[in-house]
Amino acid sequence: MAKPIVAIVGRPNVGKSTLFNKLAGHRIAIVDDTPGVTRDRIYADADWLHHEFKLIDTGGIEPKSDDIILAQMKRQAQIAIDTADVIIFVVDGKQGLTDSDNEVATMLRISQKPIVLAVNKVDNLKDEANAYEFYNLGIGNPIAISAGQGLGLGDLLDEVVSHFKDYEKEEDDDFIRVAFVGRPNVGKSSLINKLLGEERSIVTDIAGTTRDAVDSFLDTKEGKFILVDTAGLRRKSKVKEEIERYSVVRTLTAIERADVVVLMIDAEEGIADQDEKIIGYAHDMKKAIMVIVNKWDLIEKDDKTMDKYMNDYKMSLKFMQYAPFLFISALTGQRTHKVLQMIKMCYDNYNKKIATGVLNDVIGKALLQKEPPMIGTKRLKVFYGTQTGVKPPTFVFFINDESALHFSYSRYIENQLRDAFDFTGTGLKIEYREKKKDS
């Protein structure tokens, strides 16, 4: 089940990012240094009292601004509101209630989402009375906090998680949720329309849903699918930086909710940094992933062209060699009949279960075939392993000493699992826990 989404919104300079960093702590979801994959600290895992959730830092909303991106700022605020299950509305207790706060509050009331009002910068008890003024916003009880000093955050989080009881997974578990991601104009919408037009038996299009721009429900012989079309990610510029921030928020939310993430690439343009970045998030989340190269009809080719393109793409995406590729033309329909088949294959592997006995047979043979290296004076011993979950396939191996585990050997074990059980198209989550022989 996907985690609830909590968005932090408010006008600029009220302390949203400080609150985000304080709540996220060291539990930032995307922290590894995969080559070529940059990270934005706008999306993090957080938890409170055993409630896990996704936290989004949305940047500033300034409805009254005369800036050239005024219209976009209002649109961005709406995206943050739409993608969230609970909204933390941050205001400045030192500055007091402003017209901009009232403007943002109006947008939030219309959303009918649960709203938690945080009056920030209340750094001592004598300033708590400053929070009372914000009752005038008419969106609930203000909670006095100091994000910088960590004051009042427990009360704030108690209120946030109290709304999670209303959070339910909207889609049926029988559906495979698929997020199509990539830059603008690579053909995401065209492909989805092709799939809906040619292969549907039961389809419902819902525009303007609370979590995505368009969710399309599709029932076929391959299975039941929810197809999610996301906004394209453009190259950032000084003017567009905040605008693109919200495209990222929406796309990341779609990835978090998805079972399978489909990266679409324009065959003529190839893979860009933005593609590596966004699919890097899906890789870090251990999602099922496939890559579709669209507009293949526009490429002059011979019998070696596809192999050459695939090798080039795999070099750019070498951190996720497990992802399968499919070369199509959404315009002509070339190979589009294979899209759902490949998605279903990736999903099946994402949901695959391995019996404990079979798993340990494979690992035992792998250990005999290649003995773990000595790390200092220690050598890794793997006592046994077990699968503890699916979506993604999650394995726990009990070992003698974590300091004896070299990253190259953990990669070797993962490769052995992939070779033995065919985990094409899915990330794997592998954990190692120390266990003494006599325990």
From TrEMBL:
One of its GO terms (biological process) is ribosome biogenesis. Keywords: GTP-binding, Nucleotide-binding, Repeat, Ribosome biogenesis. InterPro entries: AAA+_ATPase, G_ENGA, GTP-bd, GTPase_Der, KH_dom-like, KH_dom-like_a/b, P-loop_NTPase, Small_GTP-bd. GTP 1 binds at residues 10-17, 57-61, 120-123. PROSITE patterns: G_ENGA. The keyword Hydrolase does not apply. One of its GO terms (molecular function) is ribosome binding. Residues 4-168, 176-351 form the EngA-type G domain. It comes from the Bacteria. GTP 2 binds at residues 182-189, 229-233, 294-297. It holds the Pfam family KH_dom-like. NCBIfam families: GTPase_EngA, small_GTP. GTPase that plays an essential role in the late steps of ribosome biogenesis. Associates with the 50S ribosomal subunit. Belongs to the TRAFAC class TrmE-Era-EngA-EngB-Septin-like GTPase superfamily. EngA (Der) GTPase family. This is GTPase Der. It comes from Proteiniclasticum ruminis.
